[in-house]
Amino acid sequence: MSTEIINKIKNKMAESLLPEQMKKLELVLIEILSDGTPPNLHKNRKNLIKEFINAKKIEGCSKRTGEYYTSVLTFYEKNIGCDLCLAESETIREYLINYQKINNCSNVTLDTVRRILSSFYKWLEEEDFIIKSPMRRIHRIKAPVIIKPAFSSEQIEIIRNVASENCRDIAIIDLLLSSGIRISELVNLDRSAINLNSRTCIVFGKGSKQRESYFDVKTKIELEKYLKSRKDKNRALFVSSRKKTKNNTYTRLTVNSIEKMIREIGVKTQIENVHPHRFRRTMATLAIDKGMPIEQVQVLLGHTKIDTTLRYANVQQVNVRHSHQKYIC
Question: How much is the pTM?
């Protein structure tokens, strides 16, 4: 009966409303005349987050990113206080305010949550689960731009000295430092992706984008030493020295295992904030300080936007002063 009424009203209003307005009218009528739930929510209502993550994976989203998105959205669903598709802008604003209070997080972290929610609701809108994303009215959360410090030359040598106790660890450190690749890109490298003669490697970055990266002679020497020490046939470039599979071969190193190894080196050296991403930032800083054009650094790092590259580069103030004297004075 309700379907007939809705169709009659739609026919009467067809000449007076735009397609989007007709769609909105239909949803409102169904919500009022049925159980109060917009029609598309009946379909896979409990799997919206899962479907969204699957869509992101098809677009090239990494497994690690997908897991983080799932964690953020699952927490949001449990704490929003209403159906995902019925949340309004003000409700989400209150959620973000409470999220920051509860987690005591920075504006940078909060804006990351906002971006994930924005992406999710944009997908809901595109898939016709909702008419308009409530995130359209919630803009970017401003945060102070803090350029995190790179390693100094002295710190690099201290770290390399400790890492050199293990031929695999020093090879990892040198590759991260000279190539600037992400740790996620490093763990996925196979032996076949490395060309020691040309000192290049093929990596797959965010969005499964392939690019060529480069490393120095020092890294080449350390990689040769490490590969000669390998007795297994695992295709992975870096493998664990302890864990073995059922086939009696070493397993590929994970992001967590490399992060742990580098943290331990940091403890031994007593240098603060020793982590994989800092090597990437250091490479960008050194490259710019030595005169490499920012556009080329952008390509090396695999950044889509140059603004991202600028956040990585900690340009030395002394170089700014010298350039000022050269070009201005």
Answer: 0.70
